Write a sequence for this structure.
């Protein structure tokens, strides 16, 4: 059993899955468009939550929200179900495949043997599309990979019922009805405004540009506060969140720049194209932060000064992003 | 990031399984996709994360040899888990898991619980009851 599903590689899993699932329904939107409409760009730094001993940080919004926001704004009805038992979850998936529905599935990276072993930590929010089954194996479109792959039913069941933070609970999702016409422009505008608002107005110092500034303060103090070794691991975790498979580089800032450029064409707003260029520059600065961190990783000791440099770059990114999002909020968007 | 400046620092962390996509710019600032095999800062960050895990495993093996820690602590670390996650898999409370990480708590475990731990760690029961760190490098 195999559904004729077009696999297109993307940088990030959730945006890729969403883009591919919509494409199957005849809605052709690029990965950057999905990120923008779904208001996927974000920043949060939550030191009270520790993941593998490192403070929680993310360059994107909460997993699952991109798909939900993007489909809602495009007027697409979708079904999202989770399960109590792996048996029921696998049966429901089989039933979907029998009906010819390619299905988005939430998994833990740890239990996906087709991924490189060094990347397989307990990360519970990896999205894939299952589009067929042959014998004991499922056909999988994992958007971070170049071509579709396969996974044994036992492994997929484990991956869907991994435990821990953000446990997937067998969650699966798929569009059920697509409008014949969708209001792309208003969806774009909503997406852009939402991101701009969240990045600068949430009154908690963990989110948006405030989160970046808090992070910068903490980074500066890490070597003294938690010791050189732990500080290095914390910094390494940040670099991985920012650059490792799934962000397109520069912690999603490049994909977002690509989105603003596409949006500028559709909305006929040249200013968004300029702001897109500025986001490219911000992404490059985030990469400079990764390079500054790499210097610390190499020295392995007495790199206290390096933390100051890394923190300064984060502050610079925060200032620049705040300025850009304020500019976006003042833009005169066309009335849809 | 310009498309001709996308780093290609191969440290074989991807094991040749696939090449991730990066977004990079053309001369006019528009975006295109470029495949990459890796970048030094990412590679170093990943490498030091694994180094820390391997260091921990050695320390835990020493604790076990001293009679302080239990093999469960070793395999928990090896499976990249922490007590809350392991407790969820076991269906018991965190503090009970924490007790089983110590040699004294481990000695009181029933065979049933030991089997359950072994199956979560995907190892044989003997690997828990007759712990040999050298066979797990």
């Amino acid at each position: 059993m195999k559904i004729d599903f077009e696999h297109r590689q993307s940088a990030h899993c959730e945006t890729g899955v969403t883009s591919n699932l919509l494409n199957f329904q005849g809605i052709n939107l690029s990965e950057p468009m999905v990120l923008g409409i779904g208001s996927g760009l974000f920043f949060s730094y939550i030191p009270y939550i520790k993941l593998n001993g490192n403070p929680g940080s993310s360059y994107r919004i909460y997993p699952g929200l991109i798909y939900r926001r993007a489909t809602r704004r495009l007027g697409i009805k979708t079904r999202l179900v989770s399960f109590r038992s792996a048996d029921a979850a696998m049966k429901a998936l089989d039933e979907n495949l029998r009906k010819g529905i390619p299905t988005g599935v939430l998994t833990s990276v740890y239990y996906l043997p087709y991924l490189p072993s060094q990347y397989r930590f307990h990360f519970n929010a990896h999205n894939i599309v299952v589009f067929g089954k042959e014998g004991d194996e499922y056909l999988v479109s994992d958007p971070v990979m170049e071509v579709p792959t396969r996974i044994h039913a036992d492994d997929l069941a484990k991956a869907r019922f991994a435990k821990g933070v953000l446990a997937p609970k067998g969650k699966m999702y798929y569009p059920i009805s697509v409008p014949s016409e969708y209001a792309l422009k208003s969806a774009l505008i909503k997406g852009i405004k939402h991101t701009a608002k969240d990045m600068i107005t949430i009154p908690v110092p963990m989110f948006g540009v405030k989160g970046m500034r808090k992070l910068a303060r903490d980074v500066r103090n890490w070597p003294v506060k938690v010791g050189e070794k732990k500080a290095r691991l914390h910094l390494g975790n940040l670099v991985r969140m920012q650059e490792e498979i799934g962000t397109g580089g520069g912690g999603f800032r490049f994909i977002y720049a690509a989105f603003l450029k596409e949006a500028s064409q559709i909305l006929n707003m040249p200013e968004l194209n300029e702001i897109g260029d500025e986001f490219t520059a911000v992404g490059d600065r985030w990469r400079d932060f990764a390079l500054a961190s790499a210097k610390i990783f190499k020295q392995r000791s007495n790199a206290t000064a390096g933390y100051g440099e890394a923190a300064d770059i984060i502050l610079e990114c925060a200032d620049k992003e705040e300025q850009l999002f304020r500019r976006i909020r003042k833009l005169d968007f066309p009335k849809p | 990031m310009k498309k001709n400046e996308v780093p290609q620092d191969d440290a074989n962390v991807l094991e040749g399984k696939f090449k991730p996509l990066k977004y990079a710019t053309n001369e006019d600032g528009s975006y295109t996709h470029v495949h990459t095999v890796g970048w030094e800062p990412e590679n170093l960050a990943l490498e030091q994360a694994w180094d820390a895990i391997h260091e921990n495993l050695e320390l835990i093996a020493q604790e076990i040899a001293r009679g302080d820690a239990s093999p469960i602590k070793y395999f928990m670390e090896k499976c990249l888990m922490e007590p809350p996650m392991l407790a969820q898999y076991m269906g018991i409370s965190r503090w009970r898991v924490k007790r089983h990480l110590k040699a004294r708590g481990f000695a009181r475990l029933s065979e049933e619980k030991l089997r359950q731990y072994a199956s979560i760690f995907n190892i044989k029961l003997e690997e828990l009851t007759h712990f040999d760190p050298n066979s797990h490098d």
